[in-house]
Amino acid sequence: MIDFKMPSLGADMEAGTLVEWFKHPGEAVHKGDVVALVETQKGAIEIEVFNEGTLVEHRIPVGQKVPVGTVIARIAGPGEKLDEQEQFVVPSASIVELKPESIPQAEPSKVAPAIAEIEMKTAAAARAMVSPAGRRRAGELGLDLSHIAPGRAGVIGLAEVEAAALHAHTLPPAKPAHGGLDLAEMRKAIAAAMSRSHRDIPHYWVSHAIDVTRLMEWLEAENARRPLTQRLLYAAPLLKAVALAIKDIPELNGHFGDGVFNSSGEVHVGIATALRGGGLVAPAIRDVDKLALSSLMEKLADLVPRARAGRLRSSEMTDATITLSNLGEASADSVLPLIYPPQVAIVGCGSIRPRPWAVGGAIAVRRVLTVTVAGDHRVNNGRHAGQFLTRLETLLNSPEVL
């Protein structure tokens, strides 16, 4: 039997609230299936399962907040037989059995008020079986929850609400989920994580100014021959170059935990994404070094809006082996970022600026990007950062190889 636990979705997460179950006891689950929706200080995250089998039991009811590492469900592996006691169960409220002789005889004048009270309690109990996300969405759609049938687990969730709205032909575009976030709480979580990072990780920073004129000229020519919908932002070749460069410097790519560094053979790059109204998340794109620029652009175009709408998957929040913080255009010249644990490095890019630059013994105006690497001195050092920046410069000056 497999214990499915509340995952840690980042260094700033200590607990999560179970918002909705998407898989129910008795259903088969496969690797990558989304089984639940968990609300954290950074939004609603879809939780994936990485085992094959059958969901046997929900250990945690909808609406309950539990610490990271708490068993929230149990999964039977393929071919695993269940004991007679092990049934497909869903947590529910306790039922008190009343024996006939223990029920007092009510006076007729008190029967009607008693029935009214029972009906009120029944209605309240019914209202309690609505997930927070379902209740919020129903409010957005103006739907009466009493007219919506619950799902298999007896809970009215997002799926039931939107199905009811679709049936009534009243379904407007969904509002961004982060609209209901407590941004003050998010800022507290970010501050706590970064405080731990600054306190526990012996940081160093190495910066390098890179002439990216050739990259930008290549990008302009490339986009001129592409349809409008397939054009690239400079973030795509920048991200690919970072992934290829980091592949050559394994000391900067991986996780540090329990006093041990585990270098990763895969490059999953976290993309620091600012949320509207405040807050920051850094979901990952997997295997960036293996993606073509067009595919990478598609993934960026999908990931960033979902991050800002608070609709990310757990793997996107936990898989990053290094993070890229790109300030983008019309911003500051450089940034000195803090490492996001358990990672051991982060790359910070400022804005591309026109600067006087020595070219072939003469001064010319070139477009320059300042890149900074923050590293963890327990695992790597300035030499590794310097090697990475040199490799990155070579790649950015050879955009055709990306």
Distance between the termini: 45 Å
- The counted number of beta strands is 20
Strand pairing plus helix content: what structural class? alpha+beta
Name of the CATH class of the largest domain: Alpha Beta
Task: Describe the protein.
Helix 2 packs parallel to helix 3 (158-167), helix 6 packs across helix 7 (293-308) and helix 6 packs across helix 9. The protein is of the alpha+beta class and 402 residues long. The longest helix is centred in the N-terminal third of the chain and has 21 residues, at 108-128. It has three domains: 2-76, RNA polymerase II/Efflux pump adaptor protein, barrel-sandwich hybrid domain (OB fold (Dihydrolipoamide Acetyltransferase, E2P), Beta Barrel), CATH 2.40.50.100; 100-167, no CATH class; 183-401, 2-Layer Sandwich (Chloramphenicol Acetyltransferase). The strands form five sheets. Strands 9, 12, 15, 17, 18, 19 and 20 form a seven-stranded mixed beta sheet that branches. It contains nine helices and 20 strands.
Blueprint of the fold:
Blueprint: E1 2-5, E2 15-21, E3 28-29, E4 34-40, E5 43-48, E6 53-58, E7 65-67, E8 71-76, H1 108-128, H2 132-141, H3 158-167, H4 183-200, E9 203-211, H5 213-224, H6 235-247, E10 254-257, E11 260-263, E12 269-271, E13 273-274, E14 280-281, E15 284-285, H7 293-308, E16 311-313, H8 314-318, E17 322-326, E18 345-349, E19 353-359, E20 362-376, H9 382-396
Parallel strand pairs: 5-16, 12-17, 17-18
Antiparallel strand pairs: 1-8, 2-4, 2-7, 3-6, 4-5, 6-8, 9-20, 10-11, 12-15, 13-14, 18-20, 19-20
Helix pairs in contact: 2-3, 6-7, 6-9
